[in-house]
Design a protein that fits this description.
Order of helices and strands: HHHHHHH
Oligomer: single chain
Helix content: over 70%
Number of helices: 7
Number of strands: 0
Radius of gyration: 22 Å
Strand content: under 5%
Largest sheet: none
Length: 164
C-alpha cells in the first residue's frame, strides 16, 4: 500500500503526461480484471443466438425441411442433409462455446456455419446481414483470443500445466 501512495505522491509532483500514464495504467488493470467476464458474456450471447435458431428449427421440422428445400441454397448438400447438419450444428456447438470447451475450434466452426447461413439465404435483409456480421466478428474475437479465463479450456490448461 505504501508503494502505491509513493507512486501517487510522485505523480502529483510530476507533469500531466506522467499523471495520464498513471491513470492509464490503472484503467488498463481495471479492464484486465473485467476481461474474463466480458469474454464469457460474448460467448453466452453468441451461443444463445445460435441455439435459439436451432430450437426454432426443431419446433417445426416440416417447415425447416421445406425452407431448406425451397428457400435456402446450401451448396454441395442435398436439402434434407443440410437441414439435419445445420440444426445439429446450432444445437451442439453453442453449449460448447458457452462453456468454453474447445473454444477456438467451436468458434471457428460456428464462424464457418455463420458464413454458410448468410450466403445460403438470398432474400436476407440488410438488418439480417448486419446481425450475421456482428456474430461473425464476435466469433472471430473468440477464435483469435481464445475463450478466456472463465472457460473449461482455461481450467484444463491450468490443470495440465500443474501436473507437468
Amino acid at each position: 500500500m505504501r508503494s502505491l501512495y509513493l507512486r501517487d505522491s510522485s505523480a502529483r509532483s510530476s507533469g500531466p503526461v506522467q499523471r495520464l500514464a498513471l491513470w492509464g495504467g490503472r484503467f488498463a488493470r481495471l479492464a484486465d480484471w473485467f476481461a474474463p467476464a466480458f469474454d464469457l458474456a460474448i460467448r453466452l450471447y453468441v451461443a444463445q443466438v445460435f441455439i435459439r435458431s436451432g430450437l426454432i428449427k426443431m419446433q417445426s421440422w416440416d417447415s425447416t425441411l421445406s425452407l431448406f428445400a425451397h428457400e435456402y441454397a446450401v451448396p454441395l448438400l442435398p436439402p434434407d442433409i443440410a437441414a439435419y447438419l445445420g440444426t445439429a450444428a446450432e444445437l451442439c456447438l453453442p453449449p460448447l462455446l458457452a462453456l468454453g470447451i474447445a473454444g477456438r475450434f467451436t468458434a471457428l466452426a460456428l464462424f464457418l456455419f455463420n458464413i454458410i447461413a448468410v450466403t445460403s439465404y438470398p432474400d436476407i435483409s440488410d438488418a439480417g446481414v448486419k446481425d450475421h456480421v456482428l456474430w461473425g466478428a464476435l466469433l472471430a474475437v473468440i477464435f483469435f483470443h481464445g475463450p478466456g479465463k472463465l472457460s473449461v479450456d482455461h481450467l484444463l490448461s491450468r490443470f495440465f500445466t500443474r501436473r507437468n
